[in-house]
Automatic annotation (TrEMBL):
Pfam families: Flavin_Reduct. GO terms for molecular function: FMN binding; oxidoreductase activity, acting on the CH-NH group of donors, NAD or NADP as acceptor. Residues 18-173 form the Flavin reductase like domain. Transmembrane segments: none annotated. InterPro entries: Flavin_Rdtase-like_dom, Split_barrel_FMN-bd. It comes from Ruegeria profundi. This is Flavin reductase.
């Protein structure tokens, strides 16, 4: 099968997200200028640089009560900061609850029954009990083709690691099983890992 996206795929469901998988989930917490916490999952998310450490997430689509896209992006534009919370398998239902489209002045922490904890380096909340969290300052927002398609880049200014997930000096993801986004409404979970030595090691 071959198709041009501009012509459509002819399938019952769009296969694009199912092709680019698995994708890590950035559970992005922000705060509005008037102090309301916001929390939303983004599966177009990844780390992009080591030194200094940097991450990105992409927000797609418009929201009726928010100009230019989603609440997360609007808050980041206004405050210049955000936090990336890692999603453990145990938080799957809470993460899903925060994906609901709520009015822009809603607090998704409260909606999902989560406890916010203040970050150390930025004026923002993070998720209590998350395996890890990356405090970030905004470096750039890039507008992409399409309605409200925007990529947010940030430099990591603080890193939280839950002590329960440190094993022999390494951050062991098998101790909390991170969630990953697949296509459609599907998710996966990391339970097994293996190592490969690079040819030049």
């Amino acid at each position: 099968m071959f198709y041009r996206p501009e012509d459509g795929h002819g399938l019952p469901h769009n296969p694009f997200n199912a092709i680019v998988t698995p994708r890590p989930i950035g559970w992005i917490s922000t705060r509005s200028p008037d102090g309301v916490n916001n929390l939303a999952p983004y599966s177009f998310f990844n780390a992009v640089a080591y030194t200094p450490p940097q991450v990105m997430f992409a927000s797609t689509g418009a929201k009726q009560d928010q100009d230019g896209g989603k609440d997360s992006v609007a808050n980041i534009e206004a405050t210049g900061v955000f936090c990336v919370n890692v999603v453990a398998h145990a938080h799957r239902d809470a993460m899903n609850a925060t994906s609901a489209v709520l009015p822009k002045h809603s607090d998704e922490f409260e909606h999902a029954g989560l406890t916010p904890i203040e970050c150390e380096t930025i004026p923002c909340a993070r998720v209590q009990g998350a395996p890890a969290a990356l405090e970030c300052k905004l470096t750039k927002i890039v507008n992409l083709p399409g309605e409200a398609n925007r990529v947010v880049f940030g430099e990591v200014t603080g890193v939280h690691l839950h002590d329960d997930h440190l094993r022999d000096g390494k951050f062991d993801v098998t101790t909390f099983n991170p969630l990953a986004r697949m296509g459609y409404r599907d998710y996966s979970v990391v339970t097994d890992v293996f190592s490969l030595a690079r040819p030049d090691d």
